[in-house]
Amino acid sequence: MTPSPAAALLEANSRYDIGGCLADIGDVPVVTDAVNVRRRSRDFFWYSPVLNEQLKGKSADVIVTPRDEADVIRVAAACARRRVPLTVRAGGTGNYGQAVPLEGGVLLDITGLAAIEWQRPGLVRVGAGAKMNDIDALTRPAGWELRMHPSTKRSATIGGFVAGGSGGVGSVTYGGLREPGNIVAARIVTVEEEPRVLELRGDAAQKINRAYGTTGIITALEMPLAPAWPWIDLIITFDDFFDAMRVGYDAALADGVVKKLLTPMIWPIPQHFGPLRGHCPEGRHVIFAMIAEPSLESFKAILGSRGTITYEAPHDDAPAVEPLYEYTWNHTTLQWLKQDRTITYLQCLFPHDRLIDSVREMWAMFPDEVLPHTEFIRFAGRVTCSALPIVRYTNVARLNEIIALHEHHGVLIANPHVYTLEDGSRHKRADADQLGFKAEVDPYGLLNPGKMRSYKPARN
Amino acid sequence: MTPSPAAALLEANSRYDIGGCLADIGDVPVVTDAVNVRRRSRDFFWYSPVLNEQLKGKSADVIVTPRDEADVIRVAAACARRRVPLTVRAGGTGNYGQAVPLEGGVLLDITGLAAIEWQRPGLVRVGAGAKMNDIDALTRPAGWELRMHPSTKRSATIGGFVAGGSGGVGSVTYGGLREPGNIVAARIVTVEEEPRVLELRGDAAQKINRAYGTTGIITALEMPLAPAWPWIDLIITFDDFFDAMRVGYDAALADGVVKKLLTPMIWPIPQHFGPLRGHCPEGRHVIFAMIAEPSLESFKAILGSRGTITYEAPHDDAPAVEPLYEYTWNHTTLQWLKQDRTITYLQCLFPHDRLIDSVREMWAMFPDEVLPHTEFIRFAGRVTCSALPIVRYTNVARLNEIIALHEHHGVLIANPHVYTLEDGSRHKRADADQLGFKAEVDPYGLLNPGKMRSYKPARN
Questions:
Q1: ipTM
Q2: Which residue of A has its CA nearest to B256?
């Protein structure tokens, strides 16, 4: 078979036998246009000035866009036979460079695998490329929605969330993806000369959780659903940031109050909240919250006179509407970055048994340099805070010093300024043998080589 | 108005002007038959040999059975004017003598106030005398049920549960009635010469929580609802009781696993489980559990090979079916008492921050005398265990010694062997000024005088 002119051109510029690979995959659609390939080889790693330097030049050689799992199998086989690196990409909304091909090769855009296979009360099975907003739209008429989603829900896919997320809006009730029951099953294709299709159920599904797509190509996911409450979006303002922390903590601990989001943020973070700035008075600290409508009265009883509600409206989940949650989780960082690229952020996990004290301790240590933005979550069954503080960036050495000081004081950091799985994820994954599993499903180490840095290919 | 012959007879035997009272209330139905009055002046206080001695002779003089709130107001006014004690009774399923009139007088049977006023997603408003099973049957078609119920759900009323319960099946997810949001509102009638009707919302509703009906006559309640999952009843058996504890703890901490009941019980408790005895092999410890069907696979992944499932069936909530939960909470005690009246029980709350160690410590201290039966719950937002251990009873002094030793070792006891509010309830109520509130709503101290022993009537 003669390679196409585009493939011949690619091959000339690549270390890999891209032409042979494309010939092997037949009619699976590809994108070879260099501008498009470079653009889609990126994600939101640029939130980190460190990653931005390290990853900005990386690109795949070609994008392949499978239409179904059969196509994925053909691509996996071709890459395995030709020893071509393969990096999976979906919405490209991640922040850890998980969609960036470190060694080039094929970028596998799985957004075509978007079918809802089935749904029943409490469970849905979907293609990994399905957008989370679409899943919610299709399950909501029967009274259900995904238990949790990232702040990028309007563009993120379920596969990308499971492979590169960890939790988000909803984790105040259900914990993160690492908690048992939050990923019911995953179907993957192995990268072997004769690819296998594996169904990973229960604990086994954790082998693909936040592995950045390095432990098999996820093609389908079975995810638990939550009752789709009518949510009320709220902004509450406070004189003292630690009043916001205490109200958030009380509400997070109140198991009788149904909630999806409890996000305290210190002033001046809300200064950057564009359309919502009018509800965030100068100098006042805020909680952004989503409370189930029938629990609203009870939530207000907890709040009492400790804060002032400046915004209260039913949550509108229409895809075109900018939702309140796009000012929380890592969108908080984005809102500031839109106006000022000098800041960056961290990802923290505070100790549950001295939560408020620990937040106060960190705040006192870096009062103007690390601005508290906490997210109440459940972690291993305990209420605590994740956090994505705004960091006024000076240089890498200082950033690493800040990280070290957090860790020295018992605050875990999932470092978003490193691109490898091992250095970045830490507490966000469950205890699953992802390294050992990779040897089974990616023996040649082709799934974004370098991303799981400790992996030594089982075969050559 | 001339009193009826029955009323005249009653008056002759009572310290109170019962005849005048009955004349005042006009056509509100009454029961004067002494056998019936004595029988319905009792509840399940006889679980405690101590209460049995203290309360077995107590009786009202007459039972009044209001048809609606207007009737309640007439009775309250009459009792206030005539200074006749008034004790509220509903299903009579309590264990603290809360339905036993300590000083005689009128027993107010509120089971006629059973209307469902309205329901909407997540909330229901009902008469206080509505049976909990009936409420569930009426809310389930729309996909809802009460968040929690006692093991007596088939005969208990919602008013009795709120006034004298504390939590139960469902508290592993929602905590007890004391948690914010678990009682949305209560409507009460005051016992005054001109009774008032008060709507207590939010925090204020805690003023009637587990006050045994001494802080106003509850006529209606607004209660939060939970999604009515298809529940799976499970019996799981274990070689070691502490394996059962650990599995229960892991499942209780798993926020991704939807559950309603997690009840570890040590052998030989299951020996007394009649129809379910066949699923409880000799010498093996058990967990009785209710898990939402879509979470069952995840629950089994948590269980792994640590225990053996001997029973698994969809929960049937039909009123005529004896449900699995009637072997848990205080029905566990009842199952044993059916065969052997020499035992009694305690009500414990273990410390959440050293839960398993604390259970082990108590078990080691009284290995054959206090048999562990724990109930996983959330309390103030933390996973811990309530417990209703079986106590091999010898005498009051030893019982009090056992209680003191528990408390000395950090295990809270809500003593079910005392009949006053102050001595028995403790941690089960929220922090509400029930004593101060009583002065407002029961100034003459007529609501079961002696039950709230620290109350001194505001007026005579």
A1: 0.94
A2: A181
